[in-house]
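Notes on consecutive records. When two proteins share a document, each keeps its own sequence and its own C-alpha cell line. Never mix them. Below: protein one.
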Amino acid sequence: MRWRKGRRSSNVEDRRGEPSPGGGGGMGGGLGNLLALAPFLLRSKKGWLILLALAALYYFGGNLFSGSRHTEPPSLGPDSQTAPGTQAGPEDEVAQFVSVVLADTEDTWGNLFQQAGSQYVTPKLVLYNDAVRSACGLSTAAVGPFYCPGDAKVYLDLSFLNELKQLGAPGDFAFAYVIAHEVGHHVQNLMGTSEKVQQARMRADKVTANRLSVMLELQADCFAGVWAFYAHRDRNMLEPGDIEEGLRAAAAVGDDRLQRRSGHAVSPDAFTHGSAEQRAYWFRQGFTTGDVNKCNTFAALAGQ
C-alpha cells in the first residue's frame, strides 16, 4: 500500500503500556485479595501452584497465554520498513499505518454520508496490549479486533498482525482490510442496522440468530470493500497484489476455515461470520462496485 504520505487520524487513542484492566474486577478485589490469600496458599505445594496461577491471571488480565502474543513485534512486511533517519520501532510503524488507514476510512465514509445528505460521526480507534475494558465489558487480545457500539470505538491489539500471518494472510493491505471491516460495523451502527439485528437476534432461535450475525458480518466485509474502492480510485493507495491480500485475509477468517483449524467439523449452523467463500465474495462485491446499496446481505441471503 502507498500509505506513508497519507493523513494521520486524530481519533486514535493509544492505551498501550497501561496496566491491565483485568486485575481489579476479574479477580474479585485484585492484588489486595491475592496478598490476603497468600499465607494460606503457601502452606502446601498445591497452594503454591494455585497462587502462581492466580498471579498469572492477575498480571495478564485473565488470559494465561496473553504474554506469548508479543514475543515477536508486529511488522507490516519486508517492503514496509521504517524510513531512513527515524527511530520508530516496528510497533510504532504499525501504529502509524493504522492511523493512516483510519483517516482514509474517515475521508471515504465522510464523503459518502455527505452525498446521502447525512453526517458521518467518526469512531475512535483504541490501541491496547493484552486486555482492554470497553462499554462492552472486559476483553482480552485473544478475541481479536472488535467494535463496541456502546462507546462507538474500534479496539485493536497490534499483535493481531502476527495472527494474520499465522492464518496465511500476511501483508499491509490484509491488516487494512481488518481495520476497514471494524469501521464497517461503526457504519452499521450509525445506520441503525446493528440495533435492528441485535433486537431480531434476541427474539430468534440460535440458528436464526447466527444467520443474522453472518449477514451483519458479511455486510461489514462489503463495506470494507467499498472503502478499498475509493482508496484506490480517488487516492491511488493500492498497489498490485493488495486486493489479493484482502481477499486472502477475508477468506482466512471464514468460519469454515477457523473450525477446521481448531480441529472441529464444519458446521454451517454455527457460523457467526460467514464462510471463507462468502467473506471473500462480499469484500470483492464492495470493491468492484463501490456502491453501499450493493451490500444488502440481508436481502441477498434471506432465502438461503
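Protein two starts on the next line and is unrelated to protein one.
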Amino acid sequence: MLKILKYSFYDLIRSRWSYVYFLFYLILGFVLLFLNNDVSKAVITLMNIIIVLVPLIGTIFGIMYYYNSKEFTELLLAQPIKRSSIFLGQYLGVAGSLTMSLVLGLGIPFVLYGLFKSDAIFDFSLLLVTGAFLTMIFTALSFNIAISNENKIKGFGYAVLLWLFMAVIYDGLFLMSLIIFKEYPLDTFSLAATMFNPIDLSRTLILLKLDISALLGYTGAVFKQFFGTDQGLIISLLMLILWTVFPIWRLSYKSKRQDF
C-alpha cells in the first residue's frame, strides 16, 4: 500500500492542478492578511471559504483521479496485491496531497505574518484541522461514489449532488425544520443534526472557538454550552474521525467485493 500511496502522492504533486490549488491558498492568505491586518478576522474570512471550497475540491479531485486512473487500477488488480491496499493507497495519496497543499498554502503566509506570536494560533490550527478532515471525508466519499458507479457521468453527478446537499440543501432543510417545529424543544435535535453534517460541524466548531457565538442568538448559546466545552470539542473531533473512518472502511469493504 505504501508504494501505491507514494506513486499516487508524487503523481498528484507533479500535477499542475496541485500547484494551482497550493498557489490559490498561498495568494489568498497573503491578500487576506494584507487587507485585514488582523489574524482573527482573516481566520473568519478563511472559514467561509474553506467550509465550502475544501469539500468541493476534495470531491472533484477524488472522483476525477479514480476515473482517470481506472486503467492503471485494473492493471494493478491483475497483480498479486491486496485490493484494499490499491484503493486505500490511491485514496491516501489524493487526500494527502490536497491536505498538504491546504496546510502549506495557508500556513506559509500566516507564519510569515507572525502567527506564533498571535493569540489566534489555536483558532488557525483548528481551521487547518477541520480543513484537513473535510478533505479526507469528501475525498473518501467521492471514492465510494466512483467505485459504486462505473458510468463517469453518473459518478460526477452523484458527487456534485452530494456536495450540494451537504453544503446548501442540508442547511435549508435544517432551518425549515427549526421554523416548523419552533414550539417544541429542539436543543437535542439541533446538536444531533449538526453532528450528522461534517460541514456544519466544522463551521460550528470554528465559530464557537472564535467567541462570536452571540451572533447566533439562542441557538448559539445552546451550542456554546456543548461545543464550547473541552468535552464538546473532543466529541466533535471524534465525530469528524468517524466521518472519516466509515467511508474509508466502506471503500475497503466495497473494493474486496466489487467485480472489476
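For the record: The mean pLDDT is 81.
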